């Protein structure tokens, strides 16, 4: 039985696009990692850039394995590719379920990282304090976890207009920046879940095509061996 050329080259094309997307993700994430506009606090509370780097590397490796397995009709590489996609699919599914069902664990994770890294605020470096002030101006918040009392001397970035609903009688923002970061997470959760769902669909297609090709190569090899005997 011959290998279906359509499935073979479709899988190769799929993995080539997979590999290119991994290169793009890796390049963009490295740029964000070394960018001068990075913020120490958001990098710690939202470790998305490091995660993107890992995802980019994994996608590049898987894309390479899939391309080689398809074009060379190598069952070992195709099986390794299939198992890797299956593991990623299960992990993605588990992470999506945990993120959708138990948001409190995500909030506790962010809080623990910030508390461990940046408290007490008075003991932090000038760079950390400058990043927090920048965050306060952008998100209209004050302090990291405990509000204005986190500061020994309240900076100007905490000052607000009396008309602002989050403004206290002393004209400072009452909301800690942790709360604003969590709000941003909740606002983008639907987008993240949508992207995760799209990736899961692609993984399913990749697994189906690789397994079909794997079986066809096996039948071809067995038929060749039978004919030789």
Give a concise summary.
This protein has 229 residues and is mainly alpha-helical. It is 74% helix and 0% strand.
Word description of this protein:
The chain has helices at residues 5-34, 40-45, 48-72, 75-101, 103-118, 126-139, 177-228. It is mainly α and 229 residues long. The chain is elongated, with a radius of gyration of 25 Å. The model has no long low-confidence stretch (mean pLDDT 78). The longest helix is centred in the last third of the chain and has 52 residues, at 177-228. It folds into two domains: 5-104 and 190-228, no CATH class; 107-178, Cd81 Antigen, Extracellular Domain, Chain: A (Orthogonal Bundle), CATH 1.10.1450.
The sequence of SSEs as H and E is HHHHHHH
Q: Please identify the structural class as seen in this structure.
A: mainly alpha
The total of beta strands comes to: 0
Low-confidence stretches: none
Number of helices: 7
Major β-sheet, in short? none
Strand content: under 5%
Provide the number of structural domains. 2
Cα radius of gyration in angstroms: 25 Å
- Share of helix, binned: over 70%
The average pLDDT score comes to: 78
Any chance you could write out the topology, listing elements then pairs?
Blueprint: H1 5-34, H2 40-45, H3 48-72, H4 75-101, H5 103-118, H6 126-139, H7 177-228
Question: What key phrases describe this protein's structure?
Answer:
2 domains, 74% helix, mainly alpha, 229 residues
């Amino acid at each position: 039985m011959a290998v279906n050329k359509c499935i073979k080259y479709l899988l190769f094309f799929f993995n080539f696009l997979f590999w290119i997307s991994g290169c793009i993700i890796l390049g963009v994430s490295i740029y964000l990692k070394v960018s001068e506009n990075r913020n120490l606090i958001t990098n710690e509370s939202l470790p998305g850039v490091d995660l993107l780097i890992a995802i980019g590397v994994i996608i590049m490796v898987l894309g390479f394995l899939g391309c080689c397995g398809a074009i060379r009709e190598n069952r070992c590489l195709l099986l390794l590719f299939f198992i890797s996609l299956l593991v990623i699919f299960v992990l993605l599914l588990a992470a999506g379920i945990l993120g959708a069902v138990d948001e409190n664990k995500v909030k506790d994770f962010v809080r623990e990282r910030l508390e461990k890294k940046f408290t007490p605020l008075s003991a932090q470096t000038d760079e950390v304090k400058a990043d927090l002030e920048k965050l306060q101006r952008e998100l209209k918040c004050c302090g990291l976890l405990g509000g204005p009392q986190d500061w020994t001397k309240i900076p100007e970035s905490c000052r607000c207009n009396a008309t602002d609903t989050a403004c206290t009688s002393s004209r400072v923002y009452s909301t800690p920046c942790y709360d604003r970061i969590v709000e941003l997470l909740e606002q983008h959760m639907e987008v993240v879940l949508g992207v995760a769902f799209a990736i899961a669909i692609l993984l399913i297609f990749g697994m189906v095509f690789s397994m079909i090709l794997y079986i066809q190569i096996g039948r071809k090899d067995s038929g060749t061996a039978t004919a030789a005997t």
